[in-house]
Specification:
The protein is an alpha/beta fold. The protein is built from 13 helices and ten strands. It has a six-stranded parallel β-sheet with strand order 1-8-5-4-2-3. Helix 4 links the parallel strand 4 and strand 5.
C-alpha cells in the first residue's frame, strides 16, 4: 500500500497511481464533504480526465451502519460498477471505514483508494487495514481486514476543518505519543492543536502513520502486538457509542481522550503491584486537558458502559482485557481487570451514575 502525504496533491492525482486499469471510478463522500470540498472533487475529475460517479451519503457516525451501506451498494449496481471498478473514499473516518467495507464486499471485493480529509482520518481511520460499520451499540462491530490500494493525504483539505474536529484528532495523536515514547509525546503536547502550522501537521501525520503502520506490519490481524493501539479504546468506544443517544454525541477522538484518562487510572489505581500507571496517569490527563479535549462525561450510566465493554471484541473467554500504559513508551496488553474495579472507577473518575 502506497501512502502519499503533501500539499495540493488532488490536482495531480493522475500521476500518483495508475487509474487506466479501472473500468469505472466512483467517489464516495458525505453531504458535508461534498459541500465543503466541491473544488477538490472537481480537481480529481479534471486530473483523471474522466467522468466520476459521485455517491453521497448522510454525514455522521450515526450513519455508519448496514442501512447506509445498502444505499452505497445499490448506487454501485445502478451505475454499472463491476469488479474492475475503483471506489475512492473522500471524507473522514466514517467514509473511510464504511466505504472500505462496501468496496470489500461488493461483488466479493473491488479496489478502493482512501483520501482522508480530516486530521483524525489521516492519522487513524484512513490507514491500518481495517474497514467496518457499527452494529447496534458496538462501534465497528462488523468488519474485515482489508487494505486500500493507497492513501492520499492532502493537508489542503484541512483548511475547511472545524476546530473541534482538529482538536478531536489529537485524542489519537496523543495516544500515538503514549505508545511511541517521550520524544513524540512531548512534541505533540507542546502546543495547542490549532497552533501547529501546516508543515508541523505534515510531520505529525507522517510520524503517527509510521507509528501505526510499523505496529500493523508486525501484527496485521491483531493477534497480539497490535493490541497496543487499543489503549483508550475499550472505554472510549463504549462511551462514544452511548453518547450517540444523548443530546451531546462525542467525536471519536474526544471519546478516546476520555478512554485514555480512565484506562490510565485503571493502570494506576487497580494494579499498583504490576507497576502500571503511576504518575503516567496524571501526565496523560494533563495532556488531554491542555489539548482542549474532555476528560469525563456525566450523562451516561456506568452499567450501560459495562454492558458494551462486556461485548468488546478484544475480550477473551469473557474476561475484559485492556492495553494499559506502564509509562510513556511502554504499553502492556491483555491486562485483566475485574468488572467491579472497572465500575467503581467509572463512577469515581467519570462522575457517571
Amino acid at each position: 500500500m502506497k501512502t502519499i502525504i503533501g500539499k495540493n496533491l488532488l490536482s495531480k492525482i493522475n500521476h500518483l497511481f495508475d487509474f487506466s486499469k479501472f473500468s469505472k471510478i466512483a467517489v464516495l463522500t458525505d453531504a458535508n464533504i461534498q459541500i465543503n470540498l466541491m473544488s477538490q472533487i472537481s480537481q480529481i475529475e479534471q486530473s483523471l480526465n474522466r467522468e466520476l460517479i459521485i455517491i453521497t451519503v448522510p454525514s455522521g457516525e450515526s450513519q455508519k451502519n448496514i442501512e447506509t451501506v445498502k444505499i452505497i451498494w445499490e448506487k454501485m449496481f445502478e451505475t454499472g460498477l463491476d469488479r474492475q471498478s475503483l471506489l475512492i473514499n473522500l471524507g473522514g473516518g466514517v467514509v473511510s471505514d464504511m466505504g472500505g467495507f462496501a468496496a470489500s464486499t461488493f461483488m466479493r471485493g473491488i479496489d478502493f483508494l482512501n483520501i482522508p480529509t480530516t486530521l483524525l482520518a489521516q492519522v487513524d481511520a484512513g490507514i491500518g487495514g481495517k474497514v467496518g460499520i457499527d452494529f447496534d451499540d458496538l462501534k465497528n462491530g462488523i468488519g474485515i481486514f482489508k487494505d486500500p490500494i493507497g492513501v492520499v493525504i492532502d493537508v489542503e483539505t484541512l483548511k475547511t476543518l472545524p476546530k473541534r474536529e482538529l482538536v478531536s484528532a489529537f485524542g489519537e495523536i496523543i495516544k500515538h505519543g503514549v505508545i511511541s515514547g517521550r520524544e513524540y509525546f512531548d512534541f505533540v503536547t507542546s502546543k495547542k492543536p490549532e497552533k501547529f502550522n501546516q508543515n508541523e501537521l505534515i510531520e505529525i501525520i507522517k510520524k503517527s502513520i509510521k507509528i501505526k503502520s510499523d505496529i500493523v506490519k508486525k501484527d496485521p490481524k491483531e493477534s497480539g502486538f497490535r493490541k497496543v493501539l487499543n489503549f483508550g479504546h475499550t472505554i472510549g468506544h463504549a462511551i462514544e457509542s452511548l453518547s450517540w443517544k444523548t443530546g451531546n454525541p462525542l467525536l471519536h477522538g474526544e471519546a478516546v481522550a476520555i478512554g485514555m484518562v480512565v484506562e490510565s487510572h485503571l493502570a494506576c489505581l487497580c494494579h499498583p503491584t504490576h507497576n502500571l500507571g503511576g504518575c503516567t496517569a496524571e501526565l496523560i490527563k494533563n495532556a488531554v486537558i491542555f489539548a482542549g479535549l474532555p476528560t469525563k462525561i456525566t450523562d451516561i450510566k456506568a452499567e450501560d458502559i459495562m454492558k458494551i465493554i462486556k461485548a468488546d471484541k478484544k475480550n477473551i473467554k469473557g474476561e475484559i482485557l485492556f492495553s494499559l500504559p506502564k509509562k510513556i513508551g511502554i504499553i502492556i496488553s491483555n491486562v485483566k481487570i475485574s468488572q467491579k474495579e472497572i465500575k467503581n472507577l467509572l463512577q469515581t473518575i467519570l462522575s457517571v451514575n
